[in-house]
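Intended use. Records like the one below are meant for learning the mapping from a protein sequence to its folded structure. Do not use them to infer anything beyond what is encoded.
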Amino acid sequence: MKISKKRKAANEKVDNNKLYPLDEASALIKEVDCTKFDSSVDMHMKLGVDPRKPDQAIRGTVTLPHGTGKSKSVLVLCMPGDEEAAKSAGADYVGLDEYVQKIKEGWTDVDVVIATPNVMPKIAPIGRILGPRGLMPNPKSGTVTTDVVSAVEDVKKGKISFRVDKYGIIHASIGRSSFSAEKLNENATELVKTIVRMKPVSAKGNFIKSLYLVTTMSPSVKIDTKTIAGI
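Structure written out for the chain above:
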């Protein structure tokens, strides 16, 4: 595959043998972005865990200080009594039976699904559709709650969910290439600190095996985790 001049120039700016301080990497990742659009800046963190063990299958949420730069669409599945509150909080879609039916028919055009506990039995049949897409409401991610107002507002403010995959890696978006280096640095720091606080007692050895920043179409930049304050 032929490498474009822009990508070649970007590759030359990154030293693959170097561990970059997070603040330096946050600035560099903006320089080496090769796209003409506002691309996503993602973090990939390899952890020293065994995801097959229930206590090491890390999963959680974090509210990024500067959001992700992407407006997320939210579906709230609830009883009629909670619909007005969900709408006032900014939910894009609110209801129950009609959306359960739509999802059964293949509709999943939404970023986050929030549900109240009393409707979970009705949602169970669509779990096989929502689950593989990471959309199934779950108490651990704060998407099964009686406080739909706070749940919707948190998502709109920049709350994201993360979970370790079968290879022990967490993938998460921390912003856009249009963000300042300072904002990317602060978002990345908040995510890393949150994950470190979740380190299982049974996880032995080095918890963070590797950490990279990358945009949609750019070389990856490897981070020196010792430069991240608070971990």
